[in-house]
Write a structure and sequence with these properties.
The protein folds into three domains: 80 residues, Chitinase A, domain 3; 45 residues, Thrombin, subunit H; 61 residues, Alpha-Beta Plaits (2-Layer Sandwich). 20% of the residues lie in helices and 39% in strands. It has four helices and eleven strands; from the N terminus they run E-E-H-E-E-H-E-E-E-E-H-E-E-H-E. A four-stranded antiparallel sheet has the order 2-1-8-3. A four-stranded antiparallel sheet has the order 4-7-6-5. Strands 9-10-11 form a three-stranded mixed sheet, with helices on one face. Strand 10, helix 4 and strand 11 form a beta-alpha-beta unit. Helix 3 packs antiparallel against helix 4. The radius of gyration is 21 Å and the shape is globular.
Length: 202
């Protein structure tokens, strides 16, 4: 496999230290080199062929990153009271576009860890390449699936223009990202979304 190849993979991921499974999929689309998957996964996929299976080990720096002590913050309990929230250890909070987990609450201060829960962990993946996606229409459907999990779309390509017929469910922000990726990875210069609204049958 090479950069910009479209593939479907099956995988299960677990933490090496505890053997706890944290993620699993039987049929996920991936664009190699696009950053959709962990760096360690992408590197492994490049060394594999269709229908090949591997068990791989991914160190933290190629997984969810090294734990950063600077991402452990002390927040005054008054900040939580402003939002009528009573903090407790294990509670997840969102602040400054980061998601963190409360480690402790004491003396009017709340200690929050904003590292990814899997930061610093060595990961073990059972990985299989199910197929390589070659048709442009199927590649476009794969990009949509990556962003939205929606797979019941129709794609029509005509003279470097792609029309995507979708249910009226896709966030406009995702539409922009989908269009950008389609034009980046395929020989497409224009992307058009058509939403279908149908009258419900009695």
């Amino acid at each position: 496999m090479q950069d910009n190849d479209f593939v479907r993979i099956a995988y299960s991921g677990r933490i090496k230290e505890t053997n706890q499974m944290f993620d699993k999929s039987e049929n996920s689309p991936v664009v190699i080199g696009a950053g959709y998957a962990l760096k360690g996964l992408e590197e492994a996929i490049k060394e594999m062929n269709v229908n090949e299976k591997k068990i791989i080990e991914i160190p933290p720096e190629k997984g969810f990153g090294i734990r950063n002590p600077n991402l452990i913050k002390l927040i005054t309990i008054s900040e939580f009271r402003k939002h009528d929230t009573k903090p407790f250890p294990g509670m997840f909070v969102d602040a400054d576009n980061l998601r963190g987990r409360i480690l402790s609450v004491s003396s009017g201060r709340v200690r929050v860890d904003f590292n990814h829960p899997l930061a610093g962990k060595t990961l073990i993946y059972d990985l299989e390449i199910k197929e390589k996606i070659d048709k442009p229409e199927d590649k476009i459907k794969a990009v949509i699936e990556i962003y939205t999990k929606i797979d019941n779309v129709k794609v029509v390509i005509n003279n470097k223009e792609a029309e995507i017929i979708v249910p009226p469910l896709i966030n406009p922000v995702y539409k922009k990202k989908i269009a950008d990726d389609i034009m980046k990875f395929l020989d497409i210069e224009k992307v058009k979304f058509s939403e279908i609204f149908e009258k419900l049958k009695e």
